[in-house]
Amino acid sequence: MKKALAAALAALASLLLLAVHHLERPAEPAPASLSRSAPPPAIALGDPELERQVAIVIESMDRTGRPPAGVAQGGRRSGRRGVFENAEGRLPVQPGGYYTETDVWPRAEGGRGARRLIFGRGREVYYTADHYRTFVRIR
Q1: Does residue 32 surpass a pLDDT of 90?
Q2: What are the residue ranges spanned by the domains of the chain?
C-alpha cells in the first residue's frame, strides 16, 4: 500500500510540476482570427510567411477597414490617404475611390518596400510584389 501511495504521490507531483512550468511560460500570441462570415482566401504566392502576412492584412481590412497596426495604408502623396487611383490602368477601370491600398509588411528601416495589397469595394483583393507593375488577384 505504501508503494502504491508513493507512486501516486510521485505522479501527482510530476503533474503539478508540468502545470507550474506551463503557467510560467510566456503566452504565445494568438493567431490572427479569420473572419467567420467568409472563408479565408486561398492565397498561393509561393512563400508561406508572405501568405500568412497577406491573410492577416486581408482579415484586418475586412474586419476594421484598416490594416493591422504598423502596416501603412498608402496612396499617392498628393491624393487621399489609402486610395489607389489605378493611374496605370492595370486593374479593371472603376470610379475614383473604388480601390484602397495597404502595404503588406509593417514599416521597416529602409522604407516600405514594393509589396502592396489593393482592395476593391466589391471585395476583390489584388497583390503586387513590384509596386504596381503586375498584379495577382487573390479574391
Answers
A1: no
A2: 1-139
